[in-house]
Amino acid sequence: MPIVVQKYGGTSVADPDRIKAVADRIAAGHAAGNQLVVVVSAMGDTTDELLDLASRVSVSPPQRELDMLLTAGERISMALLAMALSERGVPAVSYTGSQAGILTDSTHGEARITRITGERVRESLEEGKVVIVAGFQGVDPESKEITTLGRGGSDATAVALAAALGADSVEIYTDVEGVFTADPRIVADARKLDEVPYDEMLELSAGGAGVLMTRSVEFGRRFDVPINVRSSFSEDVGTWVREASMEQAIVSGIAHDRSEAKVTVNRVPDRPGVAAALFGPLARAGVNVDMIVQNVSHAGTTDISFTVPRANVDDAERIAKQVSDGIGAGSVDVDPDIAKVSVVGAGMKSQPGVAARMFETLAEAGINIEMISTSAIRISCVVRADQIEEAVRVLHDAFDPPVITEEPAP
Ligand code: ASP
Ligand code: MG
To answer: 104, 110, 366, 369: most buried by Cβ count inside 10 Å?
Structure first.
């Protein structure tokens, strides 16, 4: 019997009626003869509400206790879904991440899955049960502590479970029809993509497309598990994220991200070792630096700007100030009012001029570019936060409909 792994996001299980609708869908899949493993997110905005609760009792809650708190969210939805299934006569059992054998490293709040044992999952499948697994959580086998996988982590749970159980693919049920050429809330004529190669989806997710957690796409690519992103509110076939086919769009989508802030260290002495002196301590503090720009030096000093997740900006500022004092640099400025727009497409590898077109388009719209970074298949620009929607719209206009190159990437 084929094993099917499905994941239902927070909006799909937001209230009792939606949980019942999900149970109906699962009951149909079970009746059709599938072995079903179902990963759930916490109901609706539960995770945000729990974070808010924590902030009311503590200014900096211990990471361990935050994980104990947040994992409760998924525990509620998994038990309710199992109840709704048994109400329908479908045998079902729910497991926490730890019970399902989802082993992680010890990084509370941002743990990585290291291995999935999955014994109880397999046993229960063999007994004919639907297995519900709490998303976004695992256990560190050394310390026996409960961990969470980072925001959106239920996607990673689902893809990793599919890989561990040898499922042919994984179905991610969400509140949109699939992956779009841009955020449909901003671009009215954004199109749903039928297919997105892993590499492009990685860049779109890292560029801020919230539909799939970046790490889940990494798992999909590494273990070659095709990911079907689709809506739990319709029968639409959704988007397939999988190995690239022959056709390569020059630009397949525009992503944007409002979650970062810019830090600038002024008048950094221009000599070997200063970049290492700055970015070493940031890395050791777990601050994920995204873009970096160093200006040309004048009179032996230069400015270095970089972007970090807004959640880490206080740490980044404190560390940058310490380093700046240590190396004799100038003041440190923090600018939270930025956003990043990215143009992504594998076909741009063999097509010159995409960057120029992007910059011209932004210029014509009067949007100033503050930072630029590129990969082989992505160009990203940092702009003022209040111009980000306009930037996404004009770029979508400029690059859509997509031009296809027949040449597969080498
Ligand atoms: N509930 C967690 C979150 O809101 C994990 C998830 O939904 O994937 O980030
Ligand atoms: Mg999600």
So the answer is: 104
Cis link prior to 401 (omega < 30° from 0)?
yes
Q: Please, what is the average pLDDT of the chain?
A: 94
Q: Spell out the residues 6+ positions from residue 102 whose beta carbon is closer than 8 angstroms to its own.
A: 113, 116, 133, 137, 138, 139, 157, 160, 161
Q: In this structure, are residues 358 and 367 in contact, taking their beta carbons and an 8 Å threshold?
A: no
Per-residue pLDDT reduced to its tens digit, 307-320? 999 989 999 999 99
Domains of the chain and CATH, by start: 3-175 (3.40.1160.10), 245-410 (3.30.2130.10)
Distance of CA 270 from the midpoint of ligand 2 (Å): 43
Listed residue (309, 292, 310, 303) closest to 333, CA to CA:
303
Q: How far is the CA of 13 from the centre of ligand 2 (A)?
A: 12
Residues contacting ligand 1 via CB (< 6 Å): 10, 41-42, 47, 73, 135-136, 151-155
- Return the minimum-mean-pLDDT range out of 29-38, 151-160, 238-247: 238-247
Does residue 97 register a pLDDT over 50?
A: yes
What integer pLDDT is reported at residue 246 of this predicted model?
66
Any idea which ligand is nearest the CA of 72? 1
Q: Which helix (H) or strand (E) holds 72?
A: helix 63-87
Nearest CA owner, ligand 1 atom 5:
152
Q: How far away, in angstroms, is 257 Cα from ligand 2 center?
A: 15
Q: In Å, how far are 110, 136, 139, 203, 314 from 219, measured between CA atoms?
A: 16, 14, 18, 14, 31
DSSP string, 132-178: EEETTEEE-TTT--EEE--TTTHHHHHHHHHHHHT-S-EEEEESSSS
Helices 16-31 and 63-87: crossing angle, nearest 10°?
60
Is the pLDDT confidence value at 410 over 60? no
Q: Which atom of ligand 1 is nearest to the CA of 155?
A: 8
DSSP one-letter code for 347: G
Q: How far is the CA of 5 from the centre of ligand 1 (A)?
A: 17
CB-CB neighbours of 87 under 10 Å:
12
